[in-house]
Amino acid sequence: MITAVEERQAGTEAYAPAVRIANKGKRLKKLKGYAPPVLLFLFILALWQSSNKLFGIEPYLLPVPTRIAQAMVDNFSSLMQASYMTFIASMGGFALSIVVGVLVAILMAQSKVVERSIYPYAVVLQTVPVVSIAPIIIVWMGPGLNSILLISFIVSVFPIITNTLTGLLSTEHNLVNLMTLYRASWWQKLWRLRIPFATPYILTGMKISSGAAVIGTIVGEYQAGIGGSDGGLGYVITVAATQLRMDYLFAAAIVSCVMGFIVFILVNMISSLILRNWHESSVEMEN
Fold it and tell me: Where are the transmembrane segments (predicted)?
């Protein structure tokens, strides 16, 4: 007599080939999705490599990828040291923008009067060119890490404030009224309802702010950076441009782009881990 367990195992074994075929088809479909951008990248790379001969562009104006790669190899240690300093500064500014941005948004969400009072100053942080106020920051705080952190914070805090405020104000009013009916405190409404509802908005702001923090750090290093082993990528780019070392300049610029991309991917992975089991956007993305 066949037991229920044996019958279930037999059914699973019968469907195993179909499951493997379906998984293989999904993997092939995923690989095909990567084909167009990879082919376009290879085409651009080949065109760039032959640009000196095809278009007569001088190497000192546009170095070919092989020369840029050689510059990366020759200056690998200095680029990695500068990348480390830039990464530390950008993550510090990014973390500060998350803490301050979320707290300011929570404060603004409690009262329209507070929102109207604070929001214009948040807009000022976004619209005022950082280059124009960087000299003031340097005079106040001196060159170095503190000034760079503040510049990175100014550039990256606005997306956190606006997205968090939008999420907090978009909380379902019926749920808020229900918690009021059950005599929930202000803190309970905030912690158990408003913040969970605003979490996708906060994470979206973090995705935007992560790239802005790297940009703000490099801009800060242009203005307030110091040389030597404490110099970041902004300082390296400035020195390379001054010395007209275009291959080294391109190498530093590419490394900074890769850093921004890596930071964005890390934040995106954290967002997916937090939202994948309950939010529709991440569930649809996985399917």
Answer: 34-51, 84-109, 121-142, 148-169, 248-275
Question: What's the pTM?
Answer: 0.82
Place of tokens 């956007």: 281
Return all residues near 183 (Cβ < 8 A) that are at least 6 apart: none
Give CA–CA dist 93/86, Å, rounded.
Answer: 11
Cα distance between residue 246 and residue 148, in whole Å = 25
pLDDT at 11 over 60: no
Domain ranges of the chain: 4-49, 74-286
Instruction: Write down the architecture of domain 74-286 according to CATH.
Output: Orthogonal Bundle (1.10)
Cβ partners under 8 Å of residue 202, min gap 6: 102, 160, 163, 164, 167
Asked if residues 214 and 260 have their Cβ atoms less than 8 Å apart, the reply is: yes
Q: Are 108 and 118 in contact (CB under 8 A)?
A: yes
Sign of CA dihedral 153, 155, 161, 164: negative
User: In Å, how far from its chain's centre is CA 217?
Assistant: 13
